[in-house]
Amino acid sequence: MSDKTAPTMEYWHVYTDAEGMSRQKKCTLSAFKFQGVGPDVEPQWNDKQESSKAAVTFTVLPVGWVGEWHENPKPQWIAILSGRWFVETMDGTRVEMGPGELMMGEDQNTKERDGKKGHLSGTIGEAPCTMIVTGLDVAPTVDRPGRFR
């Protein structure tokens, strides 16, 4: 990749629409700049997000794990490290993700419909799903899929 052509990175954004229904949309990080992360570091492609307090949790979902309908506790980035999992939103969309895939969970403030609120998620296959979850101390938005660029 040439240092003159900025890369992009796809992610799934789980969000709440204006009617309180959770949905998913594939979005793209696209504000990469070629710069060092410090004064003595060679330039690399970085897409810096807005600063906020954050908490990092390493998670291992066991084989057969199912997280019944629930909302993300706060806006959070989820990066899959190994294994596979699925996320199903209230609109009926089911997305399966594996190693190297990225998701933003921002389905706070959904309105229960037919016993569903937030999203359903679970592991797929015969291996645990490991992930790194970075919870952000930011206010969730409504109906703004792809707000992270």
Overall description:
By secondary structure, the protein is an all-beta fold. It has one domain (9-31, 47-136): Jelly Rolls, CATH 2.60.120.10. The protein is built from no helices and 12 strands. It has strands spanning 9-16, 22-29, 33-35, 44-46, 54-61, 66-70, 76-82, 84-89, 94-97, 102-106, 119-124, 129-136. The strands form 3 sheets. A 6-stranded mixed sheet has the order 2-1-10-7-12-5, with no helix packed on it. Strands 6-11-8-9 form a 4-stranded antiparallel sheet, with no helix packed on it. Strands 3-4 form a two-stranded antiparallel sheet. A hairpin with an 8-residue loop joins strand 3 and strand 4. The chain is globular, with a radius of gyration of 16 Å. It comes from Methylorubrum thiocyanatum.
What is the structure about, briefly put?
The protein is mainly beta and 149 residues long. It has strands spanning 9-16, 22-29, 33-35, 44-46, 54-61, 66-70, 76-82, 84-89, 94-97, 102-106, 119-124, 129-136. Residues 108-117 have a biased composition (Basic and acidic residues).
